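Hi R.,

Here are the chain sequences for the assembly we discussed:
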Amino acid sequence: MTTQETIVSNLADVPRSNGGGVETFVLNVGPQHPATHGVLRVKMTMDGEYVLRAEPVCGYIHRMHEKMGENRTYAQFLPNTSRIDYLSAMTYTHAWAGVVERAAKIQPPPRAEYVRVITSELNRISSHLVWWGAFLLDLGGFTPLLYAFDDREMILDLLERITGARLTYCYYRIGGLYNDVDEEFIEGTRKFVHHMRPRLKMYRELVTENIIFRKRLIDIGPISQEMCRKYGATGPVIRGSGIPYDVRKAEPYSAYPEFDFEIPHFREGDSMARYLVRMEEMAQSLRIIEQALDKLPSGPVMAEKVPRVLKLPAGDYCYAVEAARGRFMVRIVSDNKEIAYRAKLRTPCLSNLSLFEEASQGMLLPDALALMGSLDLVIPDIDR
Amino acid sequence: MLKLLSTEPVRLLAFLVGIMAFVGLNAAYLVWVERKGAGRFQRRPGPTEVGYAGLLQPIADAIKLLSKQLIVPQGVDAALFRVAPLLMMAPALMSLAVIPFGPSLAARNINVGLLLIFALGSINVMAIMLGGWSSRNKYAIMSAARVVSQNVAYEIPTLLVVITMIMITGTMNLNEIVRQQAGAFWHWNVFRVWVNPLMPVTFLIFFICMLAETNRAPFDMAEAESELVAGAYTEYSSMGFGVFFMAEYANILLGCSLATVLFLGGWQSPFGILPGVLWFLIKMYFLVFAVVWVRWTFPRTQFYGLLNLSWKLLIPVSLFTLILSSAIMKLY
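And here is the predicted structure of the full complex:
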């Protein structure tokens, strides 16, 4: 079994009982490795199958998004945000549109806010579905990936109808939405909600209750609350460690205060807890979508009087959203120009990855990779 | 002319060609079955492009593999690197020589057939270990170490089950074992609960061990692609990989044949219709289908889970069945 020893900073301190300090080798997991789902490189100092130290090496897909945010107008940068975490593009554009609206004191109409909630939650489900399939792929199960993509296809079709894109949406605009949703979208979303609930039950029976699957996750890769705080982890990772922090409740934004939903959290802190959080979150997202569809107000979807040339008053502005992987925050420092003086993008995956080094110490390689899968990393989101 | 054909050397040659063709054809088309099966389980059509229903796909794959360069990386033990795939393939081919496909259809009907199969079967471990070790690749070496511990753990319950079978049947001649299961299906060893009430469990243990020994999911530690890239086969290209790949299917074929012979009555027909060979193939392919089914349903086990399963569950249970059946034999 794995041994969760105390943290060692020096290899010579690795206790002998762990078999450590005797003979080690460096194993490169990535930048091209099936388990890293992208160009993340993890330099693992191994003792046999035991991971003594796993050092993530970032930067292989650094694209200077923050700098790009500082040399183009606010509207021009909007599509960039959807490329940061491509699986959760809606929520990311939401944060950028949100911060500019907050600074320029633009109030999007209620219909726009509701549609933002619906599309963000649909996007969250599709993101979790990709994670679910890819995580099972990490654990050696192929079939769930195809099931997940089957369901995700329905979401993509719905979103494609109204946004024109299937992955990197740029649907939210500063002050509202690109265009209104129609009856077909609303009906299709209702149909999807009815379709998805039994599917989640099927997922539970097929995967969650599978004995091999449970044995690979339960009590594997525990992450303590202390560790979460230390590295600033957010999202399902801390909710799996028993901290019910969710930006949608903690710093309510958009139309979220108007809906009744729960923040699923589990105290165990192991890979299974993080898995269950995400599965439960999909059910909660369905709940939100259903309520939003029922209460969807009529009216315009774009605020009046959004200036063509947008100059934010000088100051320091923040806006955070709960993306599929955790808290995504945009900070803009403006000096009363058309272009931001400083654009800071606080992405959840970088913080979530940071705790991997500490959390994976002393684990067996397959368990460490299962832990990495349970963190749900999107590599461009780490490097930005 | 007829006299020449019936001589022993010619008969053996015919069997040699026959077995090689059988294994080659199966290795190619089991890949197709696997891909089609996986497609069905995953709600997609599987291969459809090359030939009708993708039936020419294995041939296209074979041509692709053959036309590629066999890269022997710098610094590897070139001889062992080249020998390893052959060591994996050859035992499976040789073992099929004693499998009785029909009442009189076995290349060699020898009295120690079962022993021969297990003696040759142990070479597989060596092959993967050599392949991994000689590759000079960290992933491959880790995989090689896993394979050894896995196979050591699973040989024991397999052999315990086989000893139980030998005790019950009193022979190591596979044809004789099949002959003892004559009659309707409840005469098959798997259903002979009056000989040993745990017979179905024994069959299950044998099947699980067979999956583990052929390195099939959920026990595919050696080729755990999400952890070790391609495990012991990481450095292999072209037909070096191709032979490993074919050998995997040849070993499945062998394992399923053996399970059919030992437990499912081999070529015995349950209804007295159709020739024996056909029944043998039906039972064997049913087991092959089960193997494919298992692979596309379960995630991979962690290897300590796998060792725990063997040492804490399979070995005690198979020891218990061994003692139980010897006690029953002593009493009656």
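Chain B touches chain A at residues 38, 41-44, 138-139, 142, 145-146, 217-218, 220, 224-227, 229, 296-305 (CB under 8 Å). Chain B has a mean pLDDT of 83.

Let me know if anything looks off.

Best,
T.
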